[in-house]
Design brief:
Blueprint lengths: L1 E5 L5 H9 L2 E7 L6 E6 H10 L5 E5 L2 E12 L6 E8 L5 E11 L9 E5 L3 E7 L7 E4 L8 E3 L10 E2 L6 E7 L2
Parallel strand pairs: 1-4, 2-6, 7-10
Antiparallel strand pairs: 1-3, 2-3, 4-5, 5-6, 7-9, 8-13, 9-12, 11-13
């Protein structure tokens, strides 16, 4: 389990000192909860995020253990070092919005016919309770030819989950190579 510390001071000076010591600044928030200003060791955070098998993972901050989902993160534009992360508490029974990754499987027929596979959506916004949150949406593209696309309405959605995107939005498609 990932362990972090609670930041007493949330000023710029304190944040710089923590970053210098190898910490990642984090904000943890949730519906009806007070925001928690925390910090995690950068390497520990990266290891934990890479080894997790579900979108929801546990963190321990102070005396509290929370189930969280990564909402947003910021990287340094030059070095690509992780600078800041926002974590949302996944509360059981509380309907909230999450970003779910899209996984593409199979090889499209259109690739043999001089087409290019274009994935326009890497993550889809969904609205559901934490216990219904899917880890990813898997799309099989093996039937797609040049000019074909899979739209949001073609995705099989688990019970209790609704996608907050227009039905006509293309998620992945095969276009003719130029």
């Amino acid at each position: 389990m990932l362990e972090g510390i609670i930041r007493e001071s949330i000023g710029r000076k304190a944040a710089k000192a923590l970053k210098r010591d190898g910490y990642l600044i984090a904000n943890i928030y949730g519906k009806g909860l007070e925001n928690i200003h925390a910090a995690f060791k950068v390497n520990d955070f990266i290891k934990e995020v890479r080894k997790k098998t579900t979108l929801i993972f546990d963190v321990k901050v102070g005396a509290k253990t929370l189930s969280v989902v990564v909402v947003d993160y910021q990287k340094d534009p030059v070095t690509s070092d992780l600078k800041h992360v926002d974590l949302k508490v996944a509360q059981k029974g509380v309907i909230s919005k999450y970003m779910v990754p899209v996984k593409v499987v199979g090889t499209a027929i259109g690739l043999k016919n001089k087409g290019v596979l274009i994935q326009s959506k890497r993550r889809l916004k969904v609205k559901c309770a934490a216990e219904n949150l899917p880890n990813f949406f898997e799309l099989d593209v093996s039937e797609l030819d040049v000019g074909d696309a899979l739209l949001v309405k073609d995705i099989v959605v688990p019970k209790g989950v609704s996608i907050i995107e227009a039905d006509r939005v293309a998620v992945v498609g095969v276009e003719k190579a130029r």
